[in-house]
Amino acid sequence: MAEQQGGKYGSLIRQAKQPRPDGQIAGRPDNQITSKPDNQITGKPEPGDQVKEKQVNLCVKVPESLRRHWAIQAKIQDVTMTDVMVEALTQKFGLPDDQTTR
User: Fold this and answer.
1) C-alpha angle 75/78/82, rounded to 5°?
2) Overall pTM > 0.90
3) Residue 28 placed within a domain
4) Which helix (H) or strand (E) holds 17?
5) Which residues form the domain of 72?
């Protein structure tokens, strides 16, 4: 069983690279549904918007019962766990000299 150069999908890849006879640009069709909403804001921030630093995860291992309690209290008080943790860490350790509070 001799396969042509390019492996199992070589001919399919070559075919995809060929120009389309109807002059269309290869890509998704207009009626194809994507995972991104039409109104999603992408691109560079508008002038005047604050440039925010990249956000990263802060993983903390806690007992499940405490996490459940804290998550319920956060929902009741309409705050996020992130806001609460950032506030607590800022109170305990402060901010770097080159940053201000959000």
Assistant:
1) 80
2) no
3) no
4) helix 10-17
5) 55-95
